From TrEMBL:
Keyword Membrane: yes
Keywords associated with the record: Membrane, Transmembrane, Transmembrane helix
Protein origin, superkingdom: Eukaryota
Name under which the protein is recorded: DUF6533 domain-containing protein
Pfam family for this entry, one: DUF6533
TM region positions: 60-82, 88-109, 121-139
Xref: InterPro entries: DUF6533
Domain DUF6533: 25-66
Taxonomic placement: Eukaryota, Fungi, Dikarya, Basidiomycota, Agaricomycotina
């Protein structure tokens, strides 16, 4: 049996509120761990760049890190902060998500290619799979639309 904490029929149930609270804790923990991991590896990253210079793969690695950090930050803000006009947030979130997937997929592609000694068949398969992942993320990001909450749509005030 679900009990409602207020008399409003649009108020979340206690179970929904608990689910949302757990989601918020997981978002905060994920973002904190990612930022902490990045801070711990920053000295190694600087050493690698100072020793070998900035190559394309290292630049893609940094873009992957930055875009995933932005993606996680925007997801956290989207979940926790009250956003009046979410269209701009959704565009920025989608941009970071596509950038993160594209860069990370390309890094994986470079690694697989190196492991399999640039074999044509493996290059073709993993290159195609990486492009499919990016295409699916672009499709997912472009079909994301803001939705009015029912209470806001009906002008119900708390």
């Amino acid at each position: 049996m679900s009990s409602r904490s207020t008399g409003s029929p649009f108020a979340p149930t206690e179970a929904d509120a608990l689910d949302n609270q757990v989601l918020y804790y997981l978002e905060i923990a994920s973002f904190t761990l990612y930022a902490y991991d990045w801070l711990l590896s920053a000295s190694d990253d600087v050493e690698i760049v100072s020793r070998g210079g900035l190559s394309w793969s290292i630049a893609i690695y940094f873009l992957s890190r930055i875009s995933e950090f932005g993606h996680m930050l925007m997801t956290l803000l989207f979940a926790l902060a009250p956003v009046g006009n979410c269209e701009v947030f959704a565009v920025v979130l989608a941009t970071f998500a596509v950038g993160s997937i594209a860069c990370t997929s390309f890094l994986f592609f470079l690694r697989v290619r190196a492991v399999y000694l640039q074999a044509r068949y493996i290059t073709f398969i993993f290159g195609g799979l990486g492009l499919v992942m990016v295409a699916v993320q672009i499709f997912n990001s472009t079909t994301l639309r803001p939705v009015l909450h029912l209470a806001e749509h009906l002008n119900i005030r708390k």
